[in-house]
Amino acid sequence: MKVSMNVNGVERGGDVEPRVLLVDFLRTNLRQTGTHIGCDTTSCGACTVLLDGEPVKSCTLLAVQVQGRSITTVEGLAQGANLSPMQAGFHEEHGLQCGFCTPGMMLVGTALLERNPNPTEDEIRWAISGNICRCTGYMNIVKAIQHAAKATRAGASTPAAVGAAAGGE
Amino acid sequence: MFPAAFDYRSAATLDEALALLAEHGDAAKVMAGGQSLIPLLKLRFAQPSLLVDIGRLQGMSGVAQKDGWLTIGALTRHVDLERGRDIPHQLSFLPEAAHWIADPLVRNQGTIGGSVCHADPSGDWGSVVLALDADLVVRSAKGERVIHAADFFQGPFTTALHPDEILTEIRVASSSKPSAGAYNKLERKVGDFATVAVAVQIELDGKKVSKAGIGLTAVGPTNVKATAAEKALVGQEPTEAVIAEAAKLAAAAAEPKDDVRGSAEFKKDVVRVYVQRGLKTALARAKEARA
Question: What's the CATH number where B119 sits?
Fold first, then answer.
């Protein structure tokens, strides 16, 4: 059946069987492979996307279920040629090693800061509790999100600061 | 993993969904948030020929007070209950119960009604509706009926719901007396099912308990209503001894099995401890309501 949705600000559509999972629609039909398939059992969060701004597991949603709604994937985070504050945070704080969980972690972090610009460490750890990382032990992921929070707060008062934080190398 | 093929209809109105169920009977399956159903479909434990998606229905979500009832719409998401806006004091433990369901991402999508109808004996909301002595309002094309929570859970993943019915609302009689509850859950890690969890709700009339509800999670073929323990509390002053006796009776009502999460003996004792702990918390909260 026909399905259409807004993916990273662009209207996208396809013709899929109702049983096609959102993650497979994104990866196979739309060739947006930044959304990963990890456990495929609603446990690991590698397939996290934002559905109307809130993180959900795209291995546990049907593509047809999100008809007409808005999806943000990791491909939608960068701001033009610049990294988003969250991406810059992961870069600056070495928030990834193999990178497999990273899209989900960054999306969860981004949604958290939208709701709560100044989260405590506990709030960050709670927010990422549905996302599993098997490399870094979470320390640097927490630091990366804290880095992004600081940069975003600074950027809210002085827009230039976000560009500086996102400057990378 | 792919589910077996099915037809899909996203219902625009409750009547449309009910008409589809009337037509297709138990070949159809209702989906709300899909957080329990989609994993079952992927494992092919469920293979409906038609999926009726009610996730977009309007007016079936949120907590409200009307005509002497506190109502929770079946499509209220776990996260909405966790954030706890507009929740009256009588139901003030709902956010703490929601907080421990699955993980934050699942809570953004899953619903209380979907969870109750899924009837996993390890589900948290089942114990909550038992403790609250809630009524479950269900609709079919033929009309509406009310099922008491105590009659709803008939076996693992099996409820009193007919194939043509949809749960629309969970409602609890509004109490003018001090009334409050607590939810205590032991889990090995975030996202795991409960090793044991216990929901309690009490109402006070003066110094005495006028109503008591206790629901047990993951210690039987369904969520368990610990009726003997409830009876031991009603009409009594909730002294240490009375609470200890109720906790013992609740542990006796639990029928846990040995598994990777712990031995049956251990789980029974966790029930005892959590009933005791939950009752003390609920009492303190009820007294707070009176103050």
Answer: 3.30.465.10
Structure-block tokens of residue B71: 């109502």
| Residue contact B105–A41, C-beta within 8 A | no
The confidence score (pLDDT) of residue B171 equals: 98
According to the model, what pLDDT value does residue A158 have?
A: 55
The stretches in chain B having pLDDT less than 50 are none
Given a contact cutoff of 8 angstroms between Cβ atoms, the answer to whether A101 and A46 are in contact is yes
Look at domain A2-76 and name its CATH class.
alpha beta
pLDDT of amino acid A167? 41
What pLDDT does B102 receive? 97
Contact assignment for A65 to B55 by CB distance below 8 Å:
yes
Q: Which residues pair with B73 in a beta bridge?
A: B169
Q: Answer yes or no: is B1 within a domain.
A: no
| Backbone phi and psi for residue A117, each to the nearest 5 degrees, phi listed first | -65, -15
pLDDT band at A60 (very low <50, low <70, confident <90, very high): very high
Residue of A nearest to B37 (CA): A60
**CB nearest to B10's CB, from A19, A67, A127:** A67
B286, B203 contact by CB (below 8 A):
yes
Alpha-carbon distance A83 to A73, whole Å? 14
Decide which of 3.40.50.1010, 2.40.128.270, 1.25.40.10, 1.10.150.120 is the CATH code for A85-165. 1.10.150.120
Task: Note whether A18 contacts B41, CB cutoff 8 Å.
Answer: no
Structure confidence by residue, pLDDT tens digits, B58-81: 999 999 999 999 999 999 999 999
Domain boundaries, chain A: 2-76, 85-165
Contact between A130 and B102 using a beta-carbon 8 Å cutoff: yes
Q: Could you tell me which of A109, A102, A103 has the C-alpha nearest to residue A85?
A: A109
Q: Residue B2 falls within a domain, yes or no? A: no
Which residue of A65, A69, A125, A145 is the best one to mutate when testing the B interface, meaning the one whose CB has the most B CBs within 10 A? A65
Looking at residue A156, its pLDDT comes to 76
ipTM of model: 0.95
> For A43, which of B3, B31, B191 is closest by C-beta distance?
B191
